[in-house]
Structure formats: structure tokens, C-alpha cells
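Field reference: "sequence" (input) and "structure" (output). Example, Na+/solute symporter:
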Amino acid sequence: MRELAFGNIDGVTLGVFVVLFAIFAFLGFWASRWRRGDLSKIDEWGLGGRRLGWLLVWFLMGADLFTAYTFIAVPSSMLAVGSLYFFAVPYVAWGFGVALLTMPRLWTVSRNKGYVTASDFVKDRFDSRWLAIAVALTGIVAELPYIALQIVGMQAVLAAMLAGLTGVVSKTVSDIALIIAFAILASFTFTSGLRGAAITGVFKDILIWITVLAVIIIVPLSYGGFASAFHNAAIQSATVNQALNHAKGPINYGALSPKLIPAYFSLSLGSALALYLYPHAINGSLSSEDKGKLKLGTSLLPIYGIGLALLALFGILVYAVPNALSAVIKLGAGTFVVPSLIAYTMPDWFVGLAYLAIFIGGLVPAAIMAIGVANLLVRNVIKEFKSLEPKTEATLAKVISTVFKFVALGFVFAVPATYAIQLQLLGGILITQTLPSVFLGLYTRNLNGKATLVGWAAGILSALALVIEANAKFGVIKTSLYTTPLGPLYIAILALLINLAVTLIGSGIAYGMGWRPSQKIKEEEITKEM
């Protein structure tokens, strides 16, 4: 508990928040009636019947990008660290390029062969159940802290609202609110599946765009623009550095140090390669009605990249609003950058709208992620050892999806937010090690399954070793960069290079010893709709 006055937050703010949340919940339950299908089948429940048009694909995948954590973490990192964290902008742009090269091919073979997950494809492509299980388990492990971090962002919004309404930050009250919200989310996800996530994603993204555009236009016009923000940053960034990082010296927002260029580039590249390996991104892509609509929806996603660039600038814009910056410094937490900026610059009703947008910006991705995890666990782990009827398969996926949401919620309650954030970076490092089996498997069948599995293991083990060594002096996971003669590099890239080397050399040896590729998937099944 701490005393705090927090901006233009009052009963009107709370009323708008509650009313909009009620609309959100209604849409989630109503979605089960939209384009009705047999929700006792896993592809109807978990992929929306593969009937989403290009606009819904755009909104759904955008819902995965503009999350509560993105809204909180990107500006927070910009404020606390400086220009290095602008790497989020090129990473998203490159990530959509990766998506256009891979997702249409994966969609085609999945439609032709009836696949629901990437691991379904891997199993047949490499004729290896163990490689498919490894890919599935990697996705499940990587997704848990990703969902947990949506909750961290939601907690920041609840804490800010409570501070404005009561003058204190009560963890107990915010935890109860989170549990209620997740119970509602779990209920309509169980009922509506991906349809619920898609419809609520449209509602959530409309509110998010209203928030981003309103703040990025109104605040600069009202508070002296970015000229004032950068001027104040030059004077006050040392104070911010001390408050947030307990370090001395100013923070550089205007330029990137030459020694950090390798880190910037490798973080962008590694994150771009990881983005569409996550189960929720693949799950959303496979829900498209046809390959053309998937391409169109994906090609328009850079519009969200523009929004992300504007959002990153919030971390600098906060310097133009002295009261907002003072609140962040007083709390000693960068997670309050956006909540405080909005609370001190916008009218009370708009604060309620914006806070609700950020809050459900955590719930919608959590639903998509839990569905993706449930599909993997049921189809590619449990089903490998026990035969399941289609109805049982779907029911089990619904139950696991529900349980996984609350496991993630418990994860946040048990693990400090700082550790959760670093574990998410580790999740990105781990999911990248599935690239040879998923992405390269879409373009070549000449990789040996056993060699690819050994390569995956080498990538995972080397990644863990590099993370441990890089953080040895900290005692906790504090960095995802490893110092090399070229400069600090994202560990995901280093581990992936080891993974690829083992996979390619092993496949060459296997071919020389008489192994020949599996014929379970014909090339036309990957390139042509049939």
C-alpha cells in the first residue's frame, strides 16, 4: 500500500471501464453464434472453422501484436534503456516478411492434410513423432511467460486505476479483479473458441487504435511536442535512470551507441524469426479462409508496425508531461509510463476507454495463446500416446485451454514481474530453435528427422548455457545478449547457428549413409490448394 494521487481518474473512469468490459464479455459469448460450426471438433473450436476473412485475420493477428504487454513494455523499455529498444519496430516489419514467406505454405499443406498445428506438419514432413513432440513442448514452454506478461501489463492498468480512485495501490484488489476477468475470459473461450478471440479482437483493436492516435496527436499539441520532450529528457534522464535502474548517468534517446549496433540488429532479426514460430501466431494464420486472404491480411499488418513505432515514442513523450513523469519516478516502475501519460493528459471518460483497451489487450492474446497451447498439448503430446475420439480431443483442448490461463495467472502471482519479463526473452530464444523443422521444412524435405532433432537439442542446450554464462554475475536472468568479438548478440541467433550447423551436417551424413527423405507430404500439397 502506498499513498498516491494519480491523474484524471474518478467514478466516470471506472464506469466507462466497466461498461466497455461488459460489451467485451458479451461479444465473447455471442461469437459462438457467429458463422456457426460444430464446436465439438477441434478445427472448428481452435481454428474458427478455418473461415476467417482477410479483415478478421488482420484484426486477429494485430491483436497478437498490440497486447497489454506491448503497450506497457515497449514505452517502458524506451524510457528506462533508451534507443536500443526501438529494435521492436524493425523486428515487427521483418517479422511480417517472414510470415509472407512461410504462413501461406503452411496454411496450404495444413488445409490439404487436415493439420491443426505446426507439429502436425513436422511429424509427417520428417516422419518423426519425437521431433513433433519436441516442437510442441518448446511452443508450450515458450508461451507460458508470454501469457504471463500480458497479465503484468494488465496489472499496471489496474494499479493505476486503483491509485487514482483510492490514493493507494492495493495488490489484493487488483488480483481479485484479474481472477474475475480471467474467469470470464475462460468461460467464453471454452464456449466460443477462436471465434470469441477474433470478434473481441476487433473490438479491442478499435479501442487500441483510438487510444494510440488520440494520445500521439493530442499530447504533443498540448504539451509542446517532441521538442519539449527531448529537451526535458536531456535534463531529467539521469534522474529517471537512477529511479528505474539504480544507475548513474543520462539515457541516450536520440542515437544508438556504435557498440550496441550488433545488439540492435541481432535482437531485431532474432525476434522477427521467432514471431511466427509461436503457437498463437501459427494458430491465427491457419484460421484463414483461403491462402489469398491470409496473404492480404498479413500484407496489411505493417500498419500495426506504424502503431508500434508511435507507441514506442510514448516512452519519450512522457518527458513532456511533468506530472506523469513524476508519478513514474515516485513509483520507481517504468510499467506506469503509458497509464500515467494517459491519466494526466486525457479526460476522465477517455482514461476509462484507454485503460480498458490496454486491459483487454492482455485478455484477447491470452485467449489465442491458450488455444494454441491446448491444440499442441492435445494433438501432439497426449494424442501421441493415447487414441482420442474427435469430440474427446476438442473437449480436452477446451479444458486445457482453461487450465493454462489460470496457470499463467498463478505464474505471475508467484514470480516477480522482473523475472517474468526475462523469462519471456528466454522463451523467444527457445522458440527460435524450432525454425529448422518448421520454416525450413516448408521449403525442403532433405533434412533428416533425427539430425534435426539433435540440432534442436543442441540449440536448446547451447541457448541455456549461453544464458547462464551471460547472467552469471547477476544471479538472475537479466540479459538475453552474449558478448562476442563482434559485440553483444542476441543469444537466439547464436544458438540457432549451432542448431543449423548440427542439423545440416547431420542430414548430410545421414544422406551419405543411405537415408532418403519421407514421401508422406508431396510438394504440390505445400504449394497448391487442392
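The CA atoms of residues 237 and 250 lie 5 Å apart.
The first strand starts at residue 481 and ends at 484.
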